Amino acid sequence: MDLGERLELFSRFHDLFREASQRTNLTAITDERDIILKHYVDSLSCLLSGELDGPHTVLDLGTGAGFPGMPLAMARPDLQFTLLDATRKKIAFVTQAIGEVPVPNARAVAGRAEALGRDPETRASFDRVVTRAVSALPVLTELCLPLLRVGGVLIAQKGPLRDEELEAGMRAAGVVGGELLRAVPFTLPVLGDPRTLVLIRKTRPTPNRFPRLDGVPAKTPLF
């Protein structure tokens, strides 16, 4: 697939996204420039991690209206994406977009990360997990690492990262079978907003007691 074909996919998705946003509350970002920069460009910043050199199976945990999963799937047709969210109206839009754009290397799933992490069919089944603006690192590690194969990598998109959150996230990662690879700071083009990619590798199987029951990781973080 050449660049022109990929840009055509983005154009079709953008039209669907704008149209659906008129009817449903998919995003608080409505300015055209901000949509491009804060949704599309920000989503593609996952590629800066160097951890998406496929072929990989990738889970977008908490995809919302399809970010970062849809831009990544359109840019990287060699990767297989599962886009997960608990909000059914958003997953309904993502399902529609996957079919109409089309994006054959992506699929949408309605559900919770805790449930997938306890399901033998999906536990430890992904090479990569990407998340954007989902939760604090201690919560993310408990939700995401059970879903990764040993050797897999969590790519967490964060804003400015406090040392306290990074330290707590690393302690939680140690409990559920992971360790910090690196944190990659950068600025969003044009806007100059600070961003951080936090990369955590799964180094051993997650203990069976994780993730805890639905909602517990967020209500009572490990650290």
TrEMBL record:
<dbReference type="GO" id="GO:0005829">
    <property type="term" value="C:cytosol"/>
</dbReference>
<comment type="function">
    <text>Specifically methylates the N7 position of a guanine in 16S rRNA.</text>
</comment>
<feature type="binding site">
    <location>
        <begin position="113"/>
        <end position="114"/>
    </location>
    <ligand>
        <name>S-adenosyl-L-methionine</name>
    </ligand>
</feature>
<feature type="binding site">
    <location>
        <position position="67"/>
    </location>
    <ligand>
        <name>S-adenosyl-L-methionine</name>
    </ligand>
</feature>
<dbReference type="InterPro" id="IPR029063">
    <property type="entry name" value="SAM-dependent_MTases_sf"/>
</dbReference>
<keyword id="KW-0949">S-adenosyl-L-methionine</keyword>
<keyword id="KW-0698">rRNA processing</keyword>
<comment type="similarity">
    <text>Belongs to the methyltransferase superfamily. RNA methyltransferase RsmG family.</text>
</comment>
<feature type="binding site">
    <location>
        <position position="62"/>
    </location>
    <ligand>
        <name>S-adenosyl-L-methionine</name>
    </ligand>
</feature>
<keyword id="KW-0808">Transferase</keyword>
<keyword id="KW-0963">Cytoplasm</keyword>
<protein>
    <recommendedName>
        <fullName>Ribosomal RNA small subunit methyltransferase G</fullName>
        <ecNumber>2.1.1.-</ecNumber>
    </recommendedName>
</protein>
<dbReference type="GO" id="GO:0070043">
    <property type="term" value="F:rRNA (guanine-N7-)-methyltransferase activity"/>
</dbReference>
<dbReference type="InterPro" id="IPR003682">
    <property type="entry name" value="rRNA_ssu_MeTfrase_G"/>
</dbReference>
<feature type="binding site">
    <location>
        <begin position="85"/>
        <end position="87"/>
    </location>
    <ligand>
        <name>S-adenosyl-L-methionine</name>
    </ligand>
</feature>
<feature type="binding site">
    <location>
        <position position="132"/>
    </location>
    <ligand>
        <name>S-adenosyl-L-methionine</name>
    </ligand>
</feature>
<keyword id="KW-0489">Methyltransferase</keyword>
<dbReference type="Pfam" id="PF02527">
    <property type="entry name" value="GidB"/>
</dbReference>
